[in-house]
Amino acid sequence: MLAATLLFVAITHAQQPNPPGQVEKGEKPVNEAYLFAHMTHEDYGRLYYSVSLDGLHWYRLNDGKRVFENYQGHPDITQGPDGTYYIAGNTSDSSPDINIWRSSDLIKWEKHTTYRPDLSSTPGYENALQRIGAPKLFYDEASKQFVMSWHTPHEEGTKEDPERYWASQRTLYVTSTDLKTFSAPPKRLLDWDMGTIDVFLRHAEGKYWAIIKDETYPTLDWVTGKTIRIASSDDLLGPYDNLSDPISPNFREAPMLIPSPDDSAWYLYYEQYPGVSYGLSVADSLGGPWYQISGYTFFADWDKYSLPAKVRHGHMRVISKTEYNALVEGFGIDKSGK
Description:
mainly beta, Tachylectin-2, Chain A, five-stranded antiparallel sheet, four-stranded antiparallel sheet, globular
């Protein structure tokens, strides 16, 4: 009986090692601070900020209120060659327009332009549905151009098969040198015959990477459905291949990727929808292998990472300590963790 009790105590207090990528006390991090631009469960599609100094523990700014009233969409931010930040959004998936704002400091935003995709000349999309999902921005230093991507379906759901709508989502893109004039027509980014949403691009480790949500519904015939996966390419616009096995469990979406403070590991966050929790997978290379760590349970002796309750998806990025201090000073920070 005593042995069983001791075993139970040991199990309930078991702790996994701390995530890799953190700096020792007194050491200067390569990546000094992080911004999470996100929405909330109660105020879906509007812009909120949380920040972190270690990429693991996140705290709300602005007393949990919106940081920019005019923004609507799924927040995604990129930084251009002159240091200007850009954020893309749309008032709803059914809106025909993608709105882009710019900022020099991530605090004050002003309208940059509005773009309306014309899919009439996109092969296979002559009869596409007027839906624009989660526009994303990426600036490629090598080619000195922006890539703006989003997902659009080409089949309506039916009563018998409502998932057909989601399975028909494909990722489209345009390029631009100034986010005012855009290439035409929009093209498909990925060649696979599978649903994809929430796709964003990154350049690291000498390759381009597409981080995606596999939007096909999970079944025994498609066990990878509704998971986060990664593919790579030698070229910005593909073709992307080497599609990974799932990095997340099923029914996860809205991936976000940041390098660790010491730049030795990658932290890949994803949401268990709708607004249930966040997962975090870690690897020392984008090609994997990846493993999941425990967090967002609100049990402090178990969590290795934490986010404010009921935050929803958006965009995480590295910022400087100077930018972090300015955001904290401008908006105020809530360290209560609520």
